Amino acid sequence: MKRRITVLATLALTLFLQQALAAVPLASADADRRAKQAVPPAGKALLYVYRLGDRGAPLSPPLRLNTRELASLAPQTFGYWAVDPGRVDLRAGTSGSRVTLRCQAGRIYFVQMTVAASGSADLRAVSYGIGRRDTFRSHLIREVRPAERSAGTRERTASQTGMTLILKAGSYRLGHASQSILNSTRDFSSTATAWGLEGEWRIPSDFAFGLEVGGHSHSYTTVGSALTGDMRVTSVFINAKKYFRGDSVVQPYVGAGLGVATTDFSGAVTGTAAGFALQGMTGVAFRWQHLGLYTELNYQGVKTRGTDAATGNSVPVDASGMGLYAGLDVHF
Fold first, then answer.
1. Burial class (CB in 10 A: 0-12, 13-18, 19+), 306
2. Which is it for strands 45-51 and 108-115: parallel, antiparallel or unpaired?
3. How far apart are CA 47 and CA 28, in angstroms?
4. 189 in helix, strand or coil?
5. How many Å apart are CA 244 and CA 255, to the nearest integer?
6. Edge-to-edge, what's the strand order for the sheet holding 86-92?
7. Which residues of the chain does CATH 2.40.160.20 include?
8. What is the pTM of this model?
9. pLDDT 10s digits, 146-190
10. Residue 227 and residue 187: Cα distance in Å, rounded?
11. In 3-state terms, what secondary structure has residue 105?
12. Which terminus of the chain has fewer CB atoms gathered within 10 Å of its CB, N or C?
């Protein structure tokens, strides 16, 4: 009786595997052998995803590498892809189990998929030794292209590393629109058109570091007098930012910067004042392959000091305030 049950169970499992493998065409024996001995292409990492002989649904949910749909796996099959260094998000289906890897060039990574009878799939990263052993027990699916073709390479729409040039414009509002300068009260136009140009370098962890140049101008009047003039503020900042949801188009961010600023006066007051400056910013970047939109709300602490030519006294000028910007960014 036990022997009969064993035979029936073996037959049922064989039929189940045959049905599953029929739904997922297999690569040739030669391609399977090469896949199991593959090494990462130059500047890439290799990602293997495999499924052992579970009793789940014959066909797994499709694998998604970031935004790209790759393939489905049957029991005892695997696929492999060359990926760019950095963050890689692997998901089973559109809303299933998810694994996030931080890949390094020249390394090999393994993820095991387990499928339940309901069809839901679970993904988990495994060690190199376990993954290599289990992959040798599986067979390559035919849909997978050779690793050197970089099939499935991460399509980082907005999370690409490298240089980004940001051009922005908006308005800047002074925090102190009335100030005593050279023994007279000067009333500044509180809001002015502002601009900024920034180049930033983004690294795989979605931090960015950059250099920004910007400025804004304010006209002023003198209380109790007809004397008028303009104040032009120019600043240079070294910035650091952290982007969130770096693999999506919509990327919120926060950041801070430290730099220097000058206030140049013309009209009733002439001369230049200089000092250190700092800023904090937040906003949302909308980034596609090479182009994007950029929004920013920032606060700048800008306090400069000049010298009164007549008395030699230090003259403080406070150009601190809030800025609201929008613009374009170009990724290289």
1. buried
2. parallel
3. 20
4. coil
5. 11
6. 68-69, 63-65, 86-92, 98-103
7. 162-331
8. 0.56
9. 443 343 334 444 345 688 999 999 999 999 999 999 999 999 999
10. 11
11. coil
12. N
- Count of helices and strands (H, E) across the chain: 3, 20
Euclidean distance between CA atoms 203 and 156, whole angstroms: 13
DSSP state of 25: P
CATH of domain 162-331: 2.40.160.20
Under 8 Å between Cβ of 22 and 84: no
**91: which strand partners?**
64, 98
Largest CA distance in the chain: 113
The confidence score (pLDDT) of residue 9 equals 46
Output the 3-class SS for 136-166. HCCEEECCCCCHHHCCCCCCCCCCCCEEEEE
For residues 322 and 265, what is the distance between their CA atoms, to the nearest angstrom? 21
With H, G, I as helix, E, B as strand and everything else as coil, classify residue 273: strand
Q: How many CA atoms lie within 13 A of 179 on its CB side?
A: 22
Give every CB contact of residue 204 below 8 A, 6+ residues apart in sequence: 85, 86, 87, 102, 161
Q: Please name the amino acid found at residue 332.
A: F
**19-39 per-position pLDDT tens digit:** 444 456 888 888 899 999 998
Q: What are 168's two structure tokens?
A: 């922005």
Q: How far is CA 118 from CA 37, 56, 60, 115, 121, in A?
A: 34, 7, 10, 8, 9
